[in-house]
Design goal:
56% helix, 7-stranded parallel β-sheet, Rossmann fold, globular, 315 residues
């Protein structure tokens, strides 16, 4: 009998050790703004793939819904509130899994003419889209450095190109371009990879939310200097609903997986539905290059520009 008890005890210890090893092998990823849209799809896709996901949201209903999904632990977090960020860091540390991936996905949109939009609206979009990733990344950086992990931010092709009414939103996303470049160089010494995901237009709640915010603030489109432009804009045509028949949110999730699992992930993942959106974004980047070069003190010749492009492509 003692012999059998010993065998059972050894088996229990072995199984316990196997369970601990399994948990240790399961990489943890934190995703902000996971209540809906691309954030929700990122969280669910990672969980299905076997990652342990800390999905951050602000509302109780979203916390309850996400906690019902295997491999997902919902955490209340508003990226504009430092105390909630600090509490989330404490929770992740207490869980003991470490943190391999950080996905700064939470974001908002504010649209309007730059000469008419209230300063408070610009401050709002900057607080969420720029200061939010800054606060969250700074807080979780020690955990990511410990694991030699990965960091990404959901940017936008609007960070490269902009147009009428997109000024505030594009300003915030353009800031994340610089943030990614600087953070990437600073994290390289620790073996941490940094990227930015730049989607084009896709169906999300950002459009309707933006429209409703403008209505709540009492914005009068008829009194705007840009009344004609507003009347022909997609924002007014369907109260902010953007009908894009594409699979961009799922492709964003796949880009996150590539960042987490590739030995040599991209610095920039551009994900657009139609090809013309991608072409227009690259063309805009090239237009800025031409503007920087044309008629300047150290203008490069066409041959020099082509040689430079060839060298960059060869890399």
């Amino acid at each position: 009998m003692k012999k059998y008890r010993l065998i059972i005890a050894l088996a229990a210890v072995t199984l316990s050790g196997f369970t601990v090893a399994q948990e240790a092998a399961q990489k943890a990823v934190l995703v902000t703004g996971a209540s809906s849209g691309s954030g929700r799809i990122i969280a669910e896709t990672l969980a299905e793939r076997g990652y342990y996901v800390y999905a951050t949201v602000r509302k109780q209903a979203d916390l309850d819904a996400l906690n019902a999904i295997d491999n997902i632990q919902a955490i209340r977090l508003d990226v504009t509130i430092q105390s909630e960020i600090d509490a989330a860091v404490a929770t992740v540390r207490e869980e003991g899994r470490g943190l391999y991936g950080l996905v700064n996905n939470a974001g908002v949109a504010v649209l309007g003419p730059l000469v008419e939009i209230p300063a408070s609206d610009v401050e709002f979009v900057m607080d969420v889209n720029v200061m939010g990733p800054y606060r969250v990344t700074k807080a979780f950086a020690p955990l990511i450095i410990e694991s030699k992990g990965r960091i990404t931010t959901t940017g936008s092709i609007a960070g490269i190109l902009s147009s009428v009414f997109y000024g505030p939103y594009s300003m915030s996303k353009h800031a994340m371009e610089a943030y990614t470049d600087s953070l990437g160089e600073e994290m390289e010494k620790f073996g941490v990879k940094v990227s930015i995901i730049e989607p084009g237009g896709f169906n999300s709640k950002i459009g309707p939310t933006t429209y409703q915010r403008m209505m709540d603030d009492g914005f009068n489109f008829d009194d705007s200097l840009y009344k004609e432009e507003w009347e022909s804009s997609w924002l007014l045509e369907d109260e902010g609903n953007y009908d894009a028949n594409n699979n961009v949110p799922q492709e964003i999730a796949e880009a996150v997986i590539d960042l987490l699992e590739s030995d040599d992930p991209k610095v920039r993942y551009m994900i657009t539905g139609p090809r013309d959106s991608a072409v227009g974004t690259v063309q805009k980047a090239m237009q800025e290059m031409v503007q920087l070069n044309e008629g300047q003190a150290h203008t490069l010749s066409r041959d020099e520009l082509v040689a430079m492009l060839d060298d960059l492509l060869a890399e």
